[in-house]
Sequence to fold (418 residues):
Amino acid sequence: MIPADTAEAQILDLVVPLDSRRDCETVTLLQAPGRILSESVISPTDFPHWDNSAMDGYAVRYDDIRLATTTTPVELSVIEEIPAGHPPAKTIESGQTARIFTGAMMPPGADAVVMQEETQRQGDLVQICAASHPRAFVRERGSYQRAGERLLSVGSVVTATEVAILAAVQRPQVDVYRQPRVAILSTGNELVSPEDTLQPGQIVDSNQYALAALVQQMGGIPLCQGIIPDRPEALKQAISTAIAEADMILSSGGVSVGDYDYVDQILSDLGATLQIRSVAVKPGKPLTVATFKGNSAPLMYFGLPGNPVSALVSFWRFVAPALRKLSGRGDNWSAPFVVARSRQDLKAGGKRETYLWGQLHTTPSGFEFSLSQGSHSSGNLINMAGTQALAVVPIGATEIAAGSTVRVLWVGAEVQQG
Ligand code: AMP
Ligand code: MG
Fold:
């Protein structure tokens, strides 16, 4: 049994990311959210593209108005109106100004903007009642970014902000990594599909669907291979098919020490190298990590424990980091931990690192963790709805008292408010 952190580091070392030149495709901006850039995006122009006004007001020559106050206003003649989207037609000479609106191009000759609230308009004249300062309210060309500089890097996850930037640089399409294909097998003679009639003693295959959902949430394509009986030949056949189709393989069940647990043996028969056999975590101790020699990169195989909670916890703790790295993400592959104050006492056996599920709350004084009610047995899936986080009770500890801080693995898409 190796510690969880060691297992994660070992797994991440084994993963070779998809290839940014070969494993990519072009998508539109509407298809891009959640995808990972396989190209760097260079700014084709300066940002802002030209000097423009940050306010509704008047474009002035600063020298004309630098002595203006409420009691000694400066009078200027308004020679033009410049709404956003219309280039100015005239040059501002001394004694002149142009009415200007937010985002509109600064006219030649002007070097500052006086906001509307500091002026009084009378026909073609305007009284400037405050001096502001040179370049006031002018967004200068190139002050955000210069042409030729890098805006976005290979490996960035595309979110709303990246989409906004891509739109602003007029990139309606962008190159992203293809989605990794992840084969999912459920092993067990006792398993039936959700649509089958349940006979006494049978168990419904929930892992297939849970794992497929997790793969999907992470931007992968699940290849569901169905239920594979505990027969060496059937298992060999299913794994061989998965090797041919997938970038990563997940199976659940069959990795313990029971009479029907054939996965490790079959992996060896098929030429895999067994990298990890068991990890000191609860739930999830029997975890098989193996690699098959691929054409260009090794193919990772995760033999997850069969118990529904163990399969999920093992995915969050060990498969998710591997999938992040495989997907082409530039960094932040590791399981995301935060420190939170526990709202309840957390109990554990002390022999293995123990994961307890619940919710993560944001409060003004930091994160808090609340434990799901009910049994934290690895067979009990039923109280896992709404799980956002797993509290970690370290090896050697049997209790973390309510009010103490605890390390928490964040597994939810959203953080609970309040
Ligand atoms: P195993 O590791 O194969 O001994 O499985 C451990 C426990 O998890 C057994 O009670 C199995 O019936 C159960 N189990 C295995 N695979 C699944 C699955 N795909 N969905 C739900 N439960 C499962
Ligand atoms: Mg089994």
In short: Helices lie at 4-14, 62-65, 160-168, 207-217, 232-245, 263-269, 308-326. The radius of gyration is 31 Å. The first strand starts at residue 24 and ends at 28.
